[in-house]
Predict the 3D structure of the following.
Amino acid sequence: MKKNDKKGIAWLLEIAGSHRILVLMACLLSAISAILSFAPYICIWYVVRDVFAAWPDLSAAAGVTWYGWLAVGFAVLSIVLYFVALMCSHLAAFRIEKNMRKEAMHKIVTLPLGFFDQHTSGRMRKIIDDNASVTHTFMAHLLPDLAGAVVMPFAILALLFVFDWRLGLVSLIPVALSIYYLKQMMGGDRAGTVQKYMDALEEMNTEAVEYVRGIPVVKVFQQTVYSFKNFHQAILDYKNWTLDYAFNCRAPMTKYTIALNGTFVLLIPAGLLLIAHAPDYQGFLLNLIFYILFTPVCAVMMNKIMRLAQGYFVAMEAVTRVTELLDDEPLPEPAHPQQPKDHSVAFKNVSFAYQGSEDYAVRDLSFKIPEGKTYALVGPSGGGKTTIASLIPRFWDVQEGSVEVGGVDVRQMASDHLMDQVAFVFQNAHLFKASILENIRFARPDASREEVLRAAELAQCTEILDKFPQGLETVVGTDGIYLSGGEQQRVALARAILKDAPIVVLDEATAFADPENEYQIQRAFEKLTANKTVLMIAHRLSSVRNVDCILVIQDGMVKEQGTHDALLAQEWLYAEMWQEYQRSVEWKVGKEENYV
Ligand SMILES: Nc1ncnc2c1ncn2[C@@H]1O[C@H](COP(=O)(O)OP(=O)(O)OP(=O)(O)O)[C@@H](O)[C@H]1O
Ligand SMILES: [Mg+2]
């Protein structure tokens, strides 16, 4: 994906695509509508003038009706144009919002997994979802108004000076003062406020999602929101920030409002003073009436501009956050992708540390799985087994050494080609809220129903499908249809079987100790791994007895390696683990006998 060099409105126009013209139309129409909205005031001035001229014989004021209708005509035209402008801007805004979400979603899949460690899902949702909505409001409503607001001051200035420049000047003083106070409110140490506001909001959002996720734990341990210190702190921070801001703005906001609404305090005395020296008494009174009628419009305009400015800053900050996300570095792709020669997997002096972590999770690790062989990783929890496995499909890139598939560094392979080569079954299988068919087909969207069914059978899912009347079409995660952990693992295996990739990486689930499930999963494993190059992470040693080689992983290093028998003969780590395992099995069997 190309890097964005456009920012703000320019970028929004770019992603509007062909709807860009609608944005421009909306701005143009809104500007014309804004200018037209002043025309009725001029018409009314003419009405008042004619009435004055004809007074007391009103029948002589022939133009009054005509000007009256003209005023109505201009007002209606202005409203209609504004309405059309909003229609155009809404059409464009929906398109922009859609494209923004789409771009962000496309981008997310290209990012290395490490990115998601730093950006929790709450933060991501805020960045994409909320900012797209803010942008929608901006494009649909604020931008056309902004176009109007840009031409309005010119029109107002022209009108203010056309009738009587002295009264125009007097009317301008409060406006100038209010602009000064507005600047005071927005400038100085309040610069970057929007940024801080968004930061506080984002933080609160992130912590809220974290909190909701943790509710089961909160309930079980009978804790309250206060025990979620970060969430509580985020709410307090937000509250303090908003209160601080509101108190800070109190004085300038009061001055601003007083200045803006104090026009008459200046206008009326100035009018009285000037009228005494006016050669044309009637004409001057007429102008004064115009200014009395018109100056409140200035106040409305200023308030509108203030609201628009606020909206503008919020929207631009929102856009910046999305473009920053889009600018994040994707996993680098090789300039000249290479083809692997076979389906072997090799680690060569690999060292890897998670971002922000001082300790290496994998240290100077070397081993090679020849094509078609099955290797197993065993070892204590936190030893680095899952980390090692995730380096093969490039969930992260190594810092030192290289991971090779078929003799080619995985960083030198095109990422889609690499993904075609590897099927990965995670420790915690994730099923989407969709039918079982779709969940399995996710591995290969072009697979036929029969192929999916066959994969499901091989993965021992038949019994699951029989449980539900809709079979493969059963939607999981809704209407009380939930699969147990072991069942989910089998559906995930069906997915991997359907993918039929030459290299299989299995992170065995620990939780499903019930013997029936274990047996079923074991059989599904066998179907999946036949004739494949396999790296399996085993938590139950029973599953590794027959593999070609067992690697004992501790502290990110291979401590011992060999076949089951060879390792037992060494009487070291693996032998100890095996004895432990045997004891636990005996303990379990013993306990079950006690129940009888
Ligand atoms: N996303 C992550 N970010 C930072 N550190 C991590 C991350 N995942 C794992 N670690 C750390 O890396 C080390 C190895 O973890 P890993 O998950 O690879 O262990 P494991 O051998 O798979 O453990 P288990 O048998 O419990 O699944 C641990 O110390 C862990 O704290
Ligand atoms: Mg693990």
About this structure: The mean pLDDT is 85. Residues 345-595 form a domain with the Rossmann fold fold (CATH 3.40.50.300).
